[in-house]
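Our working data are protein records whose layout never changes between entries. The record below serves as our worked example for the rest of this section:
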Amino acid sequence: MEQKEFDLITFGETMLRLSPSVNELISKSDSFKKHAGGAELNVASGVSLLGLRTGIITRLPQNQLGTFIKNRIRASSVSDDYIIFDNSPEARVGIYYYENGAYPRKPTVVYDRKNSSITKILPSEIPEDIYNKTRMFYTSGITLALSENTRTLAIEMIKKFKKTGTQIAFDVNYRANLWDEETARTTIKSILPYVDILFISEESCRRMFQKSGSLQDMHREFCKDYPNISIIASSEREVISPKVHSFTSTVYSRKDDKFYTEPPYKDIDVVDRIGSGDAFCAGVLFGLLKYNDPQMAMEFGNATCATKNTIFGDLPLSDFNEISAIVKAHQSTERQSEMNR
């Protein structure tokens, strides 16, 4: 694949997350810890930690909260070249509150993101030379759902990147609190002819796209309907309790007509599940960008997801060496030390 300034550029909202202490309730807590996050930032951060060059297109208020998020973007080794700052009196950052669960109480999310700065983004704010600067472009259904502005711009960017030969990666990432299934289905169907790598859950295959049969049957049907799709990835999470999960995935390569999977990471000690699905996307995209290998994409995706569950906050923290060691340990049948030393 041609070398460019960036391996991956993403487009989406970067948010401020506020969380009470672990096991504390939002309704009772007097203090909250702040984090930066957002699906597209989480993905860009995960790929950069593994060793590739990434950037994010986003829009932030020109104030202390915007500066906090910008600094977190930089600390994640993600380029801030394409951050757009909003100086208007109405400028605001999207916020969400996250409360950890403890069985039988489920985790809780409360959103306060309406009319955030990114919802007013305009095509004129995007530099035209960006479309030749990256090997891959990634966005998600969350960005399409935020506002008419983000939807129109995301679709326009997908088409412009595609024209330059850039690979397009898209995560359906359906959120019922942002848009209804019919609007989501119609909108996403309109962009699927441009998508090369598709992330979609089994539930979205069945409910939103009204497909049936096994997961393998549905993956093949997507590739029949949209021959441009070369890779489809679906995660498979078993929630035993809020603090114990098991995880694996299925990655389908259309070229080889082959499905890649492995035994799950069992009984993951979940510290914070937020961002773990994005970490999966990051691992898969890294495996494809670095090695062009669906097997390695699946292995890195599973390992990055499983590991992110053990880290507090939205953003991943594991680098290439740690993830490689976790992949090796997961595949090993030998007795392992309980400590890194």
